Amino acid sequence: MELNGSLMLMHALKNEGVKVVFGYPGGAALNIYDEIYKQDFFRHVLVRHEQAAVHAADGYARASGEVGVAIVTSGPGFTNAVTGIATAYMDSIPLVIISGQVPTTLIGTDAFQEIDAVGISRPCTKHNYLVKDIQSLPRILKEAFFIARSGRPGPVHIDLPKDISATIGEFDYPQTISLETYKPTYKGNARQIQKAATAIKESKRPLLYIGGGSISSNARDSILKLCEITKIPAIETLMARGVLGSDCENLLGMVGMHGSYVANMAMSEADLLIALGARFDDRVTGKLSEFAKGADIIHIDIDPSSISKIVQVDYPIVGDVSSVVCEIVELLKDNYNCEIHKTWRDSLKKYNALHPLSFKDSNEVLKPQWVIQKVGEIVSKNAFISTDVGQHQMWCAQFYPFSSPREFITSGGLGTMGFGLPAAMGAKCANPSKISINISGDGSILMNIQELLTCVVENIPVINIVLNNNYLGMVRQWQSFFYDERFSNTNLEIQPDFVKLVESFGGVGYVCEDKDSFEKALKDAISQNKVALLDVRIDRMENVLPMVPTGGALFNMILESKE
């Protein structure tokens, strides 16, 4: 059948099962938006900033496991979206972003709102396209969704010139895709898997190092089976929080710069690391020359380029984490002796008893760790928890009782302030029956606070808990530890009245200065099912501990504050 380019896009979205699109119209995208006006098979959420459109699509994808979709216009519309695209790229989140572009005849002429969108997006997308003729559009649309969700997921960008979006062409949407240069490997090499299983059997101090790729591959069940059979201790990265669940007896907590003492010591003293979809980020490895010096390394990852990229690996296995772990389980399940690791497990218990993850509670001032634990207690496994970036993010990762994958939605690789609120909005759209809570700092929340209006207008009841210490808290903490308390430009004592601000957008607000008022406010916000903001006044000088100084060895942790 013959369709114009904009209608082809609508049909492609329908074919791909897209239910929600986040976007913001503009001149170059007007043809697309005219077709959006006529369709009724997906919901379009009109955001107030293009960056938020991509973060919302990102939150939708993280919460649902489906491809998130965002539409923006050319020029500044696209450049505003770049931070969101880079955020998704760093965390391997499947997105398709469509940007309007000036007509093909004006490309390269410095036309109004023209920008080299493909050139800009190239370093921060898995793949990108500039559509030059209508005949190629159906294939490009199909490839975009295929590439975004297959292999190591990631964002794909399609730049669609305005004349192409209006041109009539033949729409023959491909049913399958075969790309000569892109064939992800899902099944691991059998010989390497056998070698890895043997190494696990022979190891005295093995450790499961679980990364975000375990969530992408839906590997929770197979990893839990491996834990059950072997009793091997396990650690999670920031991106993997929730894979095992906080009640899993194998779990030692989060590893890395703000990881638990026992998790970091386990990483330092293991004789075998079993890395599952992890990328050996510098916030996890610390000083590379001291990282896991006595350990052989098994690395299972679907992206061959990530293996031995940072740390030399002894047992490389390219493949889907879930599939490979299932095969390892089959090789170990009938003859595995868990007792061989008992001494190792006992020594880790002593480390945990020596420096447990804890904080000094108070009835005089609200401690952020108490607030986060209370949130977990009240919502009882029925919420998405999104965050911005900073101290509140680390406190969430440390103290929230995560129970499942996709429960924690946070910007790991890029560390994007302003991510939390739009991501929470996307998560709520993915699963309206669950509570969606954005835990933010008073610095981060202001970076995309305009999306409170989107939530109100679109009836997306997100609860925002602002841990307000009137500081850029994490930067203040670094200044305290490493810059002799020269608090350069981190004091945020002058802040808006957050309650009046959320009320001006049409939501409800609360000030919480003690435990009782916080608990009442959160329960009231949940019961009202409205867009809400809790301005939670916490201890200004509370720090996130433990902390590994940048470039330091993982086992050299700061365990106490100077203050």
TrEMBL record:
Pathway note: Amino-acid biosynthesis; L-valine biosynthesis; L-valine from pyruvate: step 1/4; Amino-acid biosynthesis; L-isoleucine biosynthesis; L-isoleucine from 2-oxobutanoate: step 1/4
Catalyzed chemical reaction(s): 2 pyruvate + H(+) = (2S)-2-acetolactate + CO2
Domain (Thiamine pyrophosphate enzyme central) ranges: 193-325
InterPro entries xrefs: Acetolactate_synth_lsu, AHAS_TPP, DHS-like_NAD/FAD-binding_dom, THDP-binding, Thiamin_PyroP_enz_cen_dom, Thiamin_PyroP_enz_TPP-bd_dom, TPP-bd_CS, TPP_enz
Enzyme Commission no: 2.2.1.6
Required co-factors: thiamine diphosphate; Mg(2+)
Nucleotide-binding among keywords: no
Domain Thiamine pyrophosphate enzyme TPP-binding, chain residue ranges per copy: 388-536
Cofactor comment text: Binds 1 thiamine pyrophosphate per subunit.
Domain Thiamine pyrophosphate enzyme N-terminal TPP-binding: 5-119
Keywords annotated in UniProt: Amino-acid biosynthesis, Branched-chain amino acid biosynthesis, Magnesium, Metal-binding, Thiamine pyrophosphate, Transferase
Family listed: Belongs to the TPP enzyme family.
Protein name as it appears in the record: Acetolactate synthase
